[in-house]
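Check these lines:
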Amino acid sequence: MLKMLKIYTELFSVFLFIFSGVSLRYFKIVRKGDASIFLNLVFYLTMPALVLSNLPSANIGFDYLYLPIIPVIVSTITFFIAKYTGQILQLENKTLGVFILSAIILNTAFLFPFVILFFKQEGLSRILFLDVGNVFMIFGLGYYQACKYGNHELTNKQIFKRFFNAIPLWAILVSILMNLLHLNLKGPFYGFVKIAGDLTIPLLLISVGIFFELRLVKLKALFIALFIRMGIGMILGILVAHILGLEGLTKAIAILGTATPIGYNTLMFASIENLDKEFAAALVSTSILISLIYIPLMIYFVI
């Protein structure tokens, strides 16, 4: 009991940042759409900086190599489960597309504050490795499904463009290469990426608060989608981690990383491809709310 209380006490600052975002929107200082600006800043600037300021100097172990494989395996299985479950539920195409996307896209960014707070750089370097596989699933299978159920056909040029614009992925790959070559940023360059990277967590959490809007729609499909992404996803993560023989912190990150809430890209793709945006917003917001309760509980059992 005291251990759980300590975890929530340490997470109080995380909740304050989220509450700040909610308050800023409530008092109309910012609008819901402003969260997209913050998330773009995170995606294109602060998250790559966070990667470049931490990963080149991380002590990368052999077990890290398994981490990118895990989201690929788990998201592929949950994709098929969601696809056939959605067909059984007889969802209309635009809702079915969102239902499937929610099973594919992991919200690993949501875990960053928790991982950094409790597992420091060792945990961050592992979650970044895991995110490589997640990014490939988002802009590969995920974007393909969005186009399939959305407005237009997918071309090889569009796939290439999406991967080319995935700046965090390139930052991770460059950082891994720097690590292998024992290269580190120094001087003003390191100072810049360190300061910019430190903005990632506040911007992410404030964005969560601004974006949050609890609206329950299509309840049966919503709760089934949540169970597939966070329930079945977590079970599969445990099984895959066990099969691969992962231990310690690497195993903990693998399990946490497959039990994340539904990714923000679900809503982004729904908006781009004119899918069911209301259902997408309900899924993302509800999954985040649930995660604020169960992610600390999971941390309780792994630390």
Observations:
- The chain has 14 helices and no strands.
- Residues 61-182+213-302 form one domain.
- The chain has a mean pLDDT of 89.
